[in-house]
Amino acid sequence: MSAEPPPIWASLPLPTLLIDAQSRILRANPAAETFLNASARALADQPVFDRLSIDAPVEDALARARANHAALNINDVDVTTGERPPVQCTIHLAPLQDDPGTILMILSPRELADRLGRSRGARTAARSAIGMAEMLAHEIKNPLAGISGAAQLLSMNLAPEDRELADLIVEETRRIVKLLEQVEQFGNLRPPECRPVNLHDALDRARRSALVGFAAHMTITQDYDPSLPPTFADADQLQQVFLNLIRNAAEACKAGGTIRLHSFYDHSLRIRGKDGALAALPLTVEIIDDGPGIPPDLAANIFQPFVSGRENGTGLGLALVSKIVTDHGGWITVESTPGRTLFRVSLPMAPRELKKEAN
Question: Looking at the chain, which terminus has fewer C-beta neighbours within 10 angstroms, N or C?
């Protein structure tokens, strides 16, 4: 086996390991480094089953692949590193032609396909919400002004016990107008004015704003990859995305808790753009809280407009986040279990010739 892996090794989008006859890791590609949260140097010579817990008899499968000199697949098994929740994967095992004792192991997470599917749904939700926003604002806001004015005039000539009912009409009308103003903001959001933006600057501005306001009862921790290059985004809209996601986490944790802001580089996510070309979305931000989680009946539709798990919630915050992210050519997904909710935003890098503007 050559001392240096072939160039294609680093370009493989799925976590890939070379395993020797004693089931020790010989090599790990960059996607495997990300999946295992360890460098290739640290993984070298480690027993693979010390680093991966797989809910399947993989040792037997490795033995069969070596004995038969043939590839095989193990479908839909849970794989975990001990540092992350289990991810359902298909495992591909293939012995090398010139060295059958050495096995190529490729992990194909279903998580990736699920993320793409959920994000396509979020994109559809955003388009639907824009049309609904325009319709509601036009059809409801003007008549409400007349209702409120009529109620105020009536209250001037009513007995005190009846005036309370008129005041209630005025108060509720104002509340609905305020909601419609949010709807108008959602429908009229300007197109992003993109330039190179440092993700961590946008995160820090959102964090500081949250801590002096709605997230004052929370602890917000930062786990950033300082080597991340700039993204290509509208700085104000990106800050609004992070602020809304932190607000959502803080409101879910009424009794206090911890919000973790995590940034990292993800080699695995590529999507096909409008021009048909594959585009990488390697810049990843996760906003994780330790609250009660999203109710299962809401999780699949959480980016739909007017879907909210909170009393008196408008259900527009996450729909707006979805719209901004998709307008930037990015993806947003959510994973939630009791005690852990994770929103993941994936964004493109700034074009190489523009990166210096963010420095």
Answer: C
